[in-house]
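Look over both lines before class:
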Amino acid sequence: MNYLSITKRWFINVASIVIVILLSVSVLLLLSMRNYYYGVASMALDAYSSDKIASTFSRYEASSSGFEKAGRDFVENFPDKDIMAVWIIDRNGNIILSSSGFQIKEKVDMPDYVNALSSEHGSARFTGRLPSGEKIIASTCIYNFSTGVHGGAVRFMISLEAIDSQLVRICFIVAFCCVFMFALLILSGSLFIRSIVNPVKDIGDTAKKIAGGDLEARIDRYPYNDEIGELCATINDMADKLATSDRLKNDFISTVSHELRTPLTAIKGWGETLLQIGDTDSQMTERGMGVIINEASRLNDMVEELLDFSRMSSGRMKMNNDRIDILAELDEVVFSFKERTIKDGIDLVYNVPHTPAPANGDASRIKQVFINILDNALKYTEHGGKIIIFAEIPNPATLIISISDTGAGISPEDLPHIKEKFYKANTTVRGSGIGLAVADEIIRLHNGEIDIDSVLGEGTTVRITVPISPFEKDTTDTEGDISINE
């Protein structure tokens, strides 16, 4: 796939903007400097107005050669010969005196002189070049005698060569600064972009490996604690969870395969046995048919549990809600476990109020929750242990059912994950690892919750909290602790 890299996009977008900004700032700076220096030169020319010239030339007005004498006196006493040149121009436009001391005989184009002759103020300015090629800024002031007769003019000139040379030096300095700043920006930007692009490439490569099935791939080379570091940590956490989920899935498949194989083996074995003995042993046939029916029922329960899990995972688990008594459903489930608790040598203590606990719910699903939790309690409790079932109604709208056992308990590391799908804290005990996840989903769909407390080696308490319809609670009509096995 063709794509434009982040580095190229950054260079095209940012670098182009920086170039435009640097060029704009440089041009504005140079124009400002040029206007400043040229302005200073203009101010120097403005210092010599027609009034100052008249004050000098008027003293020689009575002499027949007064203008030339006045011009010589003006030039000789001119204080700014080091920064500007002065020409004295007679009434015919000839340059008769120069502050440089050299006589200028050739005809010089003087646009400022021509414009000054026609100007109302008797002065004009010109920026251009002398015949020698020197760039100047010139200002000409016309002098008229008191009688109104044109006497001549004085031309002031300042060379712009030094100013232009200074501007060229400034231009080189500005250009060097711009290039240095641009290079510094490119270098720092490239390092910064590389610090983003390289980790992003690592993230992409690792994500491809994970997508390809390598769940052991991790990102471990990003040194900064920022957004990308958080992204790396999130991807690593995702990979850990995917690896855990994959392991749990494989364990689940193995467990379910084993769980399915056991009743199938029993059914097949007894079927072959019954086929061999025929009708010769009715007692054996009855026993075998009982085993086959029990194992078939067990298979059916396992398939239903898997179907429930599938519906739960896809969000298709539906409740057939009706008006039910939750405690009555609990009574039926506890009674159905009576024989098993006696057989396993486990003391089952049952303490619930006689008051009904009406609610809108699915009776079969609620029973399924109680069956799953009691089955777990029995599986993890050894002979001689105890299971206590206690129910209370702390307020008219809430029912709390606690099922506690004195079994193996759950480690603190396993406890936060115990309601996750496929998760089994103890893989040595039969079960698919999805019963509690399904139970938790069913209670959640009844707007309740399941909480689990456990101490490793001491036992586990599962607390089911569900909302019920308000009723008038009778606190006197409750049972004490009753041992079902008695």
Notes: The CA atoms of residues 234 and 378 lie 39 Å apart. The radius of gyration is 53 Å. The chain has a mean pLDDT of 82. The longest strand covers residues 135-144.
